[in-house]
Amino acid sequence: MTDADDSEDTRISQSGGVPWRDLHVSETHRPPERDVEITGIRSMAVAGNFTWGIVRIDTNTDHYGIGETHRAPRGLLEFAEGLEHDLVGENPLDVDRLTELFNQSYTNCGRIGQGAWTGIEMALWDLKGKLLDVPVYELLGGKYRDRVRIYNDTHAGEGLGKAEAGSGDPREIYTPESYARAAREVVEEGFEALKFDLDVYTDPTVDTAARRLDNEAIAHKVSLVEAVREEIGYDVDLGVDLHWNFTVETAVRLARKLEPYDLAWIEDPVHPEKLEAQRQVRERTTTPILTGEQIHGTGDFKALLDEELLDIAAPDVTHCGGLRVMREVATLCDLHGVPVAPHNVSSPLGTVAGAHVAASIPNHLCMEYHAREIPWWDDMVDRTGGSGPILEDGYVDLPEGPGLGVELDPEVVERHLVEGHESIV
C-alpha cells in the first residue's frame, strides 16, 4: 500500500463513512478558468454573549472565505480544522459537491461534526462569491428584498442570570414593569417585532423538574405579557419563548391564557421531536407555534410539515446545515404555506449569512437578533463596497459586496478573542 493509500484509508476509517461514490474531481476534468484550490483551514473563537466560532478557508489565490459555527463547544473548531485533510486541493467553487463529500464520508460525526461543517459551508459560499465577484444572495437565486426584517430577543426584561446569581426574589426581578420597560426601549430603537423569554425561573415554590406551573405561576407569566401589550400596543409583533420547558398540560393552559394578547407566536412549548406532544399543543391553541432552532437538516422539518405540526419555522443558518439547507427548508415551508423566522444567536458574520438566505426566499417573516447587550457587536465586521451599520431600525440592509459582503475587523476581534485563541484575520 502506498503512502497515498495509507492517507486515504485513514480518512475513511476515521470518518465512519464508506465513499462508494468518488466525489473528488480529477485535474483532467477541471477547466483552467476554475483552477483554484483550497490550501488550508484555520479557526478562532470570539467571546460575545455566546462563544462565536469563526472558520477561515484559504486558497492558492488572494481570496479566502469566512464562516461562523453555532457557538463553539469543545471539539467543534478542532473538528473543522481537521477537515483540512479532506479539503486541501479541492475546488471551493463546488459547494454542493463538497457538502455531499462531507455527508458521505462523515456519517457518524454527530452534532459537533455537523456544526463544524456548517461553518465550513458558510465560508465556502463567502469564498465562492468573492471568486465570482457577486454577493451570496445572487448565488442563491437573487433577492426578494433589499432589507431583512429583524426581531429582537428581549430576554426577560432583565438579565437572565440575575435571579440565579442571588440578586433577590425572581418575581421582584422579572416583573411586568421590567418587561414593559424593555419592550418600550426596543420599539423606540426601531424594531417592529420582538420576543421575550417566558420560561424564566420566577417561583421558588414550583417543582421545575416536573415541568408544571401552578395557577399563580401562570397568572404571573400572563401579567408579564399583558404589561408589554399595554406598553407597546398591538401593532408590534410579539412572540414568547418557552424553550420546551413544560408539559403538554401546562403549555396548553398557558397558551390559552395568552390568546387574548394576539401573540405572533409561542416558541417551543414542547420539544419538536415529540410529535404527538407538538400536535396536542398546536390543536388546542389558536396562537401559532414556532420551532426549529435545534433541527439539523431538512428531514425533521419535513416530518413536522407533513404532519401539519408547524406554523412558523425557525432554522438557524449556523446549525441547520448551512445556507443551502436553510434555503431548502424555506422552500419546503413555502410549499406548505408556512413562513420562516430564522433563529439566530450569531455574531454579525452569521447574522449577515442568514440575511442573505432570508433575502432570497419569499416566505421570510423576521430573523432573530440576540446581541442587543453587546455594544461592539456591529463593530466586529466592516462592509465591503459600502459603509454603515449592519443592523439599523430593526432591519439588516443587505450587503452588496462580493461573498457575504463583510470582513472581520481585526482590532475588534483581537480585543474579544477567547483565551488561548489567536486571530485568523
Automatic annotation (TrEMBL):
<dbReference type="Pfam" id="PF02746">
    <property type="entry name" value="MR_MLE_N"/>
</dbReference>
<dbReference type="InterPro" id="IPR018110">
    <property type="entry name" value="Mandel_Rmase/mucon_lact_enz_CS"/>
</dbReference>
<feature type="domain" description="Mandelate racemase/muconate lactonizing enzyme C-terminal">
    <location>
        <begin position="176"/>
        <end position="288"/>
    </location>
</feature>
<dbReference type="InterPro" id="IPR034593">
    <property type="entry name" value="DgoD-like"/>
</dbReference>
<feature type="region of interest" description="Disordered">
    <location>
        <begin position="1"/>
        <end position="32"/>
    </location>
</feature>
<dbReference type="InterPro" id="IPR013341">
    <property type="entry name" value="Mandelate_racemase_N_dom"/>
</dbReference>
<keyword id="KW-0456">Lyase</keyword>
<dbReference type="InterPro" id="IPR029017">
    <property type="entry name" value="Enolase-like_N"/>
</dbReference>
<feature type="compositionally biased region" description="Basic and acidic residues">
    <location>
        <begin position="21"/>
        <end position="32"/>
    </location>
</feature>
<protein>
    <submittedName>
        <fullName>Mandelate racemase/muconate lactonizing enzyme family protein</fullName>
    </submittedName>
</protein>
<dbReference type="InterPro" id="IPR029065">
    <property type="entry name" value="Enolase_C-like"/>
</dbReference>
<dbReference type="InterPro" id="IPR036849">
    <property type="entry name" value="Enolase-like_C_sf"/>
</dbReference>
<dbReference type="InterPro" id="IPR013342">
    <property type="entry name" value="Mandelate_racemase_C"/>
</dbReference>
<dbReference type="GO" id="GO:0016829">
    <property type="term" value="F:lyase activity"/>
</dbReference>
<dbReference type="Pfam" id="PF13378">
    <property type="entry name" value="MR_MLE_C"/>
</dbReference>
